Amino acid sequence: MVVITEKEFKQLSQYIKSNYGIHLSREKMTLVTGRLNNVLQQAECHNFTDYYNHIVADKSGGAAITLVDKITTNHTFFMREADHFYYFRDKVLPFIVKNIKDKDLRIWCAASSSGEESYTLAMILDEFFGEEKMWWDTKVLATDISERVLDIAKKGIYSNERIAPLPLYWRTHYFKQHDRENAVLVDKIKNEVIYRKFNLMDTVFPFKKKFHTIFCRNVMIYFDNETRTKLVNRFYDHLEDGGYLFIGHSESLNKETTKFKYVMPSVYRKV
């Protein structure tokens, strides 16, 4: 196994933070070494200095994509932190719908991972609107920095075990059997989510219209305070007045630096 030196770890972690906002503490040296050793071998790099130079020299961006895929966890599941979804269904949607005149509902799942969160939102929207849905644009924008998890999400295939916690109505109406061990989402739901690769550290957000709700959960735990504050401010600027921001239960916003109004744990509103 190739061991990373202090100097090499500092160099690599600074590159990751500058480009992707992810803060890697010194305690993550062993984790980084374990996750990247096979990558070094495949790239024929003898040490982490060679590997860093390989990433910087790769103009295709493929090496950087592999790096991000290896160091990010992308752990998620259907109905994770379920109270968020109930609040979105029971409180947020009725308020937004009442105040939208053009029937263009804009929801952004800003760290969609393998698709469970964004598809959960799509199923909630389908059930909420019912027959009225045909008159609305309710497509969910789902973005992630990892192409690997986006490819998984686009397929919409999940094990029977992973969809087991979902309501029976959802399992029978929104999924069909793929094989003995897996189910696949029906096109009615798959087509309601637009997946795009996007880096939250990009200085410009390429969105023409503001969103009514942004979900960005369990991502900012990887950022330092300065990076987190800048990102939250950009979320604020890209939300409609009265719009909502959902973050992870293990996250919170600094009330001294944010313009968001606290609603309930990990739920904030632009006022």
Q: Describe it for me?
A:
With 271 residues, the chain is of the alpha/beta class. It has two domains: 6-71, Chemotaxis Receptor Methyltransferase Cher, domain 1; 82-269, Vaccinia Virus protein VP39 (Rossmann fold). The protein has helices at 6-20, 29-42, 48-57, 62-71, 82-99, 116-129, 147-155, 160-163, 168-173, 187-190, 225-237; strands at residues 107-109, 140-144, 157-159, 175-177, 182-185, 193-197, 211-215, 239-246, 261-264, 267-269. It has a seven-stranded mixed β-sheet with strand order 6-2-1-7-8-10-9. Strands 3-5-4 form a three-stranded antiparallel β-sheet. Helix 2 packs antiparallel against helix 4 (62-71). The protein starts with 5 loop residues before the first helix and ends with a strand. The model has no long low-confidence stretch (mean pLDDT 91).
